[in-house]
Amino acid sequence: MQRNKMRSRIGSRVITTSVGEERVEAYLPPPLPPSPAVNMEMLASRLGEAHLVVGRLDGMTAILPDIPIFLYTYARQEALLSSQIEGTQSSLSDLLLFEVDGAPGVPLDDVREVSNYVTAMTHGLTRIAGGFPLSQRLMREMHEILLSESRGSTKLPGEFRRSQNWIGGSRPGNAVYVPPPPMHVADLMSDLERFIHTDYPEYPTLIKAGLMHVQFETIHPFLDGNGRLGRLLITLLLCASGLLRHPILYLSLYFKIHRVRYYELLQRVRTHGDWEAWVEFFLDGVIYTSEHATETARKILDLFERDHERIKQSGRSASSPLRVHQVLQERPLLSVPSIATNAGISLPTAYSAIGFLQNIGMVREVTAKKKNRIFAYDEYFQILSETSDPDTT
Q1: How far apart, in whole angstroms, are the C-alpha atoms of residue 218 and residue 275?
Q2: Which domains does the chain have, with CATH numbers?
């Protein structure tokens, strides 16, 4: 019975296509929702827990003193982690240094890809917040930004692919997975868009997001950037649906920690129709990531309050150091001229305040330059760096 159920979800959707002189089997996924339906009864407990922790995280944003600060840093963490899954070598300091003075310490393409991800993410979230639907058009807009001026700039930015791609292996014939041929992409994406905008009472938003992600990755509609965009779509759907008031939940940390299992389960849906195993994994990721994000936000909030009091009780005029402290909360790595501009103080005053914060161990120089020196809000930066590196979490 279970085997027949799984087989019927896959259907006879494998077709033979030609890539050059090679004949290969490509997969055409059935449209969503799965048929037979996902067994929600067996997932009810995990879904309930996921809703609880997501609600707690969303509630946490209501008490944060300055939500744009957290959105700035969380967006960059997500950009790093999602790009690292695809093989880039950038770190948080690489990205922030690039944003400060355009001088990355790693190959330019690596850090530019991460920076593009931040820009594409911001574009998508701004459009969603303005009422624009999560649609093929928005996906193409974001994809164009994602691939601009980087290694993917020659791979049809903003356009669905017109040639066959594959995943794993050196050619389609020995690939782990061969997505649908290009002539089917437009129809499959239209089906996916219809699923996104159709109300299915049996599938709450979290489940819908998990189903959407697999279908997008299975269609693999672009020549490059599918993984990064596909992970970002999860957060966009959660925000568009109103489940999250702010884009503070990203799953790339969990997917990177469990990368092998992540890819195994994506493939198992295609080969066995095993949506339940994927959704269970996905909900575990939502639970882990929500708890992790809530804990990180609390750590940062506690740090800000503790350091604010340290400055106030320093026994000297605290006005300028407090203003610099506020600027460093917004951007944890900056040059002194940028600090002066953002704090609304003179350059000598900014240097004096930075010197004071250095003396009490709150900031450190990260560039070792005589000119154009850059300083980091040390403990804050460490928290963010640890969160961006799954090996240390």
Answers
A1: 13
A2: 2-292 (1.10.3290.10), 314-392 (1.10.10.10)
